[in-house]
Amino acid sequence: MGSITLEKVSKSFGSTSVIPEIDLEINDGEFVVFVGPSGCGKSTLLRMIAGLEDLSGGRIVIDGKDMSNEAPAKRGLSMVFQSYALYPHMSVYQNIAFPLKMDGQEKSAIDKKVKDAAHILNLTNYLDRRPGQLSGGQRQRVAIGRAIVRQPKAFLFDEPLSNLDAALRGNMRLEISDLHHQLKTTMIYVTHDQVEAMTMADKIVVLNAGRIEQVGSPLELYKSPKNVFVAGFIGSPRMNLVEGPAAAKHNAVTLGVRPEHVQISKTAGLWKGTVGVTEHLGSDTFIHVQTENTGKITVRTDGDFATEHGQSVYLTPDPSRLHLFDANGQAI
Amino acid sequence: MATLQTRATARIMMSPAVILLFLWMIVPLVMTLYFSFLRYNLLMPGTEEYVGFLNYQYFLTDPAFFTALGNTLLLVGGTLLITVIGGILLAIVLDQPFWGQGIVRLLVIAPFFVMPTVSALVWKNMLMHPVNGLFAWIARSFGFQPVDWFAQVPLFSIILIVAWQWLPFATLILLTALQSLDGEQIEAAEMDGAGPISRFIYLVLPHLARAITVVILIQTIFLLSVFAEILVTTNGGPGLQTTNIAYLIYSQALLQFDVGGASAGGIVAVILANIVAFFLIRLIGKNLER
Asked: Which chain B positions have a beta carbon within 8 Å of A86's beta carbon?
């Protein structure tokens, strides 16, 4: 079991308020991702759930019990840190066994649990090594191993993949998602990378300056962002946000259209512009077009579309896929 | 120093310094070795002659030698014990954030800058003096008989003075080591359910192991030759109670004018220091490999 409820949780350091009141419901077995730009308070929020940071106000309820003032170890949560925080003078085995040893469990029981965890994470051959002798990905797995042996109510991940290279990050993303399907334990995952958020989450919580901008499944956020911030943050490349007459035509202050929903043509279309930088990814091509009246627009088209720098093109946004926002940035 | 030429040039450029340092070390050593085989007494000039190992025989069979050896080991061991344990505790306290941290750190380090003779005099006359000393005053104001430190517990008094001088050094080294401990590791241990004592045993102490061995090595080198504190306070007495090897050699040479015997003692001291160094280096080598 592992349902977590935040009730009016707030945090301030001195007179600066980092997190104004937040309410959030995390259901048992859910994979929740906190995502937002750096400094938005997502790590602070995670550390408050973990108990490493005091609350300035509000309550944290875990499995129906108020845990707001409990010590971190009593909350039944495990955390994987950004720097892995492995104990450098202990072997992999001792690292994974440490929480069990602190719990005062029997040697034989510890041994079985450590071996099981090592088996799940493919660490069986590395149990005698020290963290210093492991690669980044292996260290990451040891940190996860140390988290799972305690059979926590929920896992907390604090940007666990940001120290890995791109290829390994992709692999570990899959492994963590796999692990979630195997264990079916609640997971809370903090990242600034919206790709990680989109690919792994059951539920994404978009944070900005300590406030929750929107909560929803990845596709909900992609299809119907509630406001300009979410629209600009979720999706890669970013959504094109256009202000001025083009938006006014639809009775909106800001008009948003995703790069994949813009038609590009060499002959005719709604907006005229010249081609700037073209990024060829093979499967797709991102074309940055400087339009005459609507500013810079990014277009995503198929890999075979041939253009040259400075060429004139015409763009037409898909009218059924437009996102409209009012003066406060809220979706209409 | 990649090419052959640069390597040769480097050798030539370095050689004056290396040769000078080598002579600096080898000349006194050889002269001491030479004197140790002579009957060489300053009161009987002109009678120097080769006596073989007689000086060594006298020095090593002198009952004062074993007393001095024991005192030396007690002095080194006692001081190390106090400075390492005290240093760890002080370092942990100084690592906590508190008001006036900067000034307190400065004060803790201050004793290291006081020269040994001065600090020994201050301890002797202002703190441990049985009539005028601060400790005696404290004892009297509680109605106790004051302790006559240098008469009743002379070696312990010397250990206290030396430990006071070296405590800042140990604290400083251990504090910097403590500050390099990763905060996330402590937090991870907290999540893993380790209390303050477990965190100290399983995380802080292993992290400090390297710094502790460095403190022990460096202090041992200096503590084997403690001299000024003894000369200023007790002159090796009462009896032989505070005579260590260094002081014994001094009294042999400059109080009994027996240069030959003192040289033999010096060579014995060099050999002893090397035995200690051998074990220490092995210990440290093991610790640094990790």
From this structure: 185
